Amino acid sequence: MSAEPSGPRGLGGAIPLGPGTPARPPAPQPLPAPRPAPVPEHVTELDEAVALRPAAVDPHQRLPAKFAMLSVHRAYDGGREAFRLRGHSGGELETVLDSEHTQLRPKNLALHNLRQGTGRPSLPSELLMGLEEWSRGQEALVRWINALRARHGAELQLVIWDDTDYDIPWELLHLSGGQELGMAREILGALVTVVRWTTVHGAGTSPFGEPAACSGHVLGFYAEQMRQDAEVFEEYQHSPHFVRPWPFLAELTRRELGAGLVYMGCHAEYGPDAHDVKIDVVSWSRLNLQPMPALADGRTLVCLNACDSARAFDNQGRGENALRGFAELFLRKGAGGCIATSGKVGDKTAHQQIRELVKRVCADPELPVARALREFRAGAAARLPVPLWWLDGEDRSELDTEREILESLYSFMFVYFGHPFTTLRLRGRTEEVGW
Q1: What is the pLDDT of residues 344-375, one digit of tens each?
Q2: CB of 219 within 8 A of CB of 253?
């Protein structure tokens, strides 16, 4: 059921028209523009504009044309964790989604359930079939997205502002019911440019401002087992740091650093509380206190090739009603965008996939990062076997198929937080340094 538009998106006090409406008085004539008043002597006029303090961002603000936003709100249903959806789009013909009922958290469908060694991991095919089944229960959401696809086609930019820690893999939502509109039945993240967002506390930033044009060299940190990742950037100007993260972090205190990409290839740890969350050996709390003026100009993309680095945690254990995480941290420090992972990607596969992803992102400096990720996911989706229902996991060929499904799902673990049109241009090894 659609909600009545309000605020800047609706006309709260409509003017009655039609037969029987009392006559209105003639419109007043406009007054001449006032003459500029002289500036009093005790008032100082500034030569340059002064930046205002960050203001809170309204996630339901008016959006640019061809943009749409799906906001995900935490709720409770009989004491059980649940969520509610709300969506709206930009342009003159606004399309609104306002879920009438809450939905339970789909705990078994998070991609971190594929993790080996913690309980009984989900078979890749079971998780994918579960997502398809769950998607069939999202009729209102799928209809809303299909209506936007029919209107905007490939130019649709979907921002998912998820303020829960439920780890729902929205990019793997299965779209159906659009065949009558001439659209393919496919997976959301492979068809539509999707970006993530989360509330960035105290920074007043949103994914609807000016896109970042990230450019410069690569500043990289590589744990011993991820040392191979450094080879990905051999064509670009690169300042690599290995094994120990402290010299790498010290570089982020240099305002004049000029990095276009800050890259971390390492393991990470996730838990329900701040002290459980680490990237390499650095706790979230310690990283949170780390000054990072190198990111302050908003022209640096951060890429975290680290397991679970996209996951948020509820910080109520420290008396704060807020979600925190590495993506929120780097965006708050000024990063122009952040790529992170929502689960555990195997080291060998992570290296192969980050090589393909970097190649896509850097092949065309004018191609937005979010669009490159869409193409990256589309390639993974094309490798998924159809149908899945006959797999039983016993035959060797079926085990191979499970492995192929797992590698495709790994591609959907890479999520991007930032403006849909943010770009990245890395400086080649032969280019002159301009900083």
Answers
A1: 887 677 788 888 988 888 888 999 999 999 99
A2: no
Largest CA distance in the chain: 88
CA distance 199 to 323: 8
Residue whose pair of structure tokens reads 């709720």 in the numeric block: 75
Alpha carbon distance 326, 341 (integer Å): 10
- The C-alpha angle 47, 52, 54, rounded to 5 degrees, equals 160
Q: Which residue has the higher pLDDT, 254 or 390?
A: 254
Q: In angstroms, rounded to a whole number, what is the distance separating the alpha carbons of residues 208 and 187?
A: 24
Q: How many CB atoms lie within 10 A of CB 352?
A: 15
| SS3 state of residue 171 | helix
H-state helical runs in 186-340: 188-191, 246-251, 284-289, 326-333
pLDDT in tens, 194-250: 999 999 987 778 888 899 999 999 999 999 999 999 999 999 999 999 999 999 999
Measured between alpha carbons, how far is 172 from 190 in angstroms, rounded to an integer? 8
Residue 118 near residue 62 (C-beta atoms within 8 A): no
Closest CA to 161 of 265, 290, 57: 57
- CB count within 10 Å of CB 370 equals 27
Looking at the DSSP assignment, which residues form a beta bridge with residue 241?
Answer: 221
- Residue from 376, 292, 305, 306 nearest 336 by CA: 292
- Cis bond before residue 121 (omega within 30° of 0): no
**Residues 191 and 233 sit within 8 Å (Cβ to Cβ):** no
- Given the structure tokens 């439920």, which residue do they identify? 166
Q: Are 351 and 263 in contact (CB under 8 A)?
A: no
